[in-house]
Amino acid sequence: MQDAGMFVAPRPAVWSQAMRSMDDFWREQAEIGKIWQLVGLTTSVEREGEWFRSTLGGRSIFVQRFKDGLRGFENVCVHRGHPLRTEDKGNGPIRCGFHHWQYDQHGRALGIPKCNEMFGASPRELNARLRTLDVANCGILIFARFPNERFHEPLETYLGPGFDILRSLWSEGRSPYIWSTELKANWRLGHHISLDDYHIVAVHPSTFGKNGYLPQEVVKYYRFGRHSAYFYNADEKALQKMVEDCRNGTFQPDGYRIMQFFPNLVASVSPIGSACLAGIMQYVPVAHDRTRLFMIIQDYPRPAADQSRSRALVRRLKLPIILRSAQLMTRKIFKEDNAVCEHMQAIVHQLDRPPILGRQEERIGWFEENYADVVGDLRPSSVAAD
Ligand code: FES
Ligand SMILES: [Fe+2]
Fold first, then answer.
1. In terms of Cα–Cα distance, which of 81, 70, 74 is closest to 56?
2. Does domain 161-375 sit in CATH 3.90.1150.10?
3. Where are the domains of the chain?
4. Where would I find the Rieske domain in this sequence (predicted)?
């Protein structure tokens, strides 16, 4: 733990650079797209042939289920660049709507109308291929990245202890409630606020902040790999214990826990009365000043051993009400957080000094260290850093 207010962003010049210009945003996203990121759920692609469209590193992509598993491709036809998928989801072969080039499960253009006549070669001789993605899943969560030299660890290694936790919380889809909204601000401003426990009194006075600031002794932060977590009222070993319990299928949530996976994923677990909810939140970058915010909530049944029949029945009856109130509260919290981010985006060209981060904002510093490491040097900023 650092002293309050002692953290200084490692590279102040890039702190707000990609928040200000589209050119810098694309440069940033080209690097960020090399890191594993959540792109969708296996529940959307259960049957062979099913696909969904998503976004990775600011680029349109799609993931499809084939006989031998899931594959992902950049959503750009190699002929003249038309998107292959123009809807959010569907089922069927990869056939471009512009000139009907058709691709196989490896992304090879093997069905090209009038190929010899038009191109003087057979499809195999042309050897045109889609750009493929690395794809892996953890429970029902599908992650992807653009293959690259620098970041090639398997998903399990990348998520570290978080892999077992996510796999346990999201082992199957139980009619997840999925909601999305637009944030008119940069994705990092959105993600920063999820790493900040200091704003709750000013921004969420009727919910998280109604009892005042969190006493420092109940705030426990963990750092693992590029990721971090906040557990309410937990000890040094609570993260390791949670991993072991998740692995053994015996995890019993006893307090609010939130984990931030670099770069843009937030996973939480909240015991509420007799129920427990697992949540996923993701800030998907769209432009330097625009982000799509996704929220997924579903029931996380505690291990059956500890559930008497009567408790299980009460839980089942109360669950729809708990889910509904969680949805309403989540929307309210987002609205409050998003207003802050949008106010900052309006003056983002003036954010030319690094922030001063206190103890309950410490994880923003951890996040920014990773950001600087992954993104590297952006073009020198036109605004001088202090
Ligand atoms: S652009 Fe796709 S077939 Fe022509
Ligand atoms: Fe907030």
1. 74
2. no
3. 37-150, 161-375
4. 36-144
DSSP string, 29-71: HHHHTTS-EEEEEGGGS-STTEEEEEEETTEEEEEEEETTEEE
In the sheet that 177-183 helps form, which strands lie side by side, from edge to edge? 177-183, 290-299, 275-287, 265-272, 257-261, 227-232, 219-224
Q: Give the whole-number percent of the chain exceeding pLDDT 90.
A: 75
Atom nearest to 99 CA in ligand 1? 3
* Listed residue (284, 317, 273, 281) closest to 298, CA to CA: 281
For residues 185 and 302, what is the distance between their CA atoms, to the nearest angstrom? 37
- The pair of structure tokens assigned to 90 is 């569907």
Walk along the chain (386 residues) in steps of 10 and give the mean pLDDT of each run: 48 74 94 97 96 97 97 98 98 98 98 98 97 97 97 97 96 87 96 96 96 94 96 92 94 90 96 86 97 92 63 73 86 95 95 89 94 80 40
Distance between CA atoms of residues 92 and 140, nearest Å: 21
343 ligand 1 Cβ < 6 A: no
CB within 8 Å of 307: residues ≥ 6 apart: 301, 315
Q: Copy the structure tokens of residue 109.
A: 């253009």
Find the distance separating the first CA and the last CA of the chain, reported in whole Å.
25
Q: Tokens 């010049």 correspond to what residue?
A: 13
pLDDT reported for residue 6: 52
Helix (H) or strand (E) holding 20: helix 17-20
Distances (CA, A) of 180 to 109, 304, 330, 333: 34, 32, 11, 13
CB atoms < 10 A from the CB of 219, how many?
19
CA distance 194 to 257: 12
Ligand 1: which residue has its CA nearest to atom 4? 99
Ligand 2 centroid–CA 116 distance in Å is 59
Pocket of ligand 1, candidates 74, 84, 96, 110: which has the most ligand atoms within 8 Å of its Cβ, to mutate?
A: 96
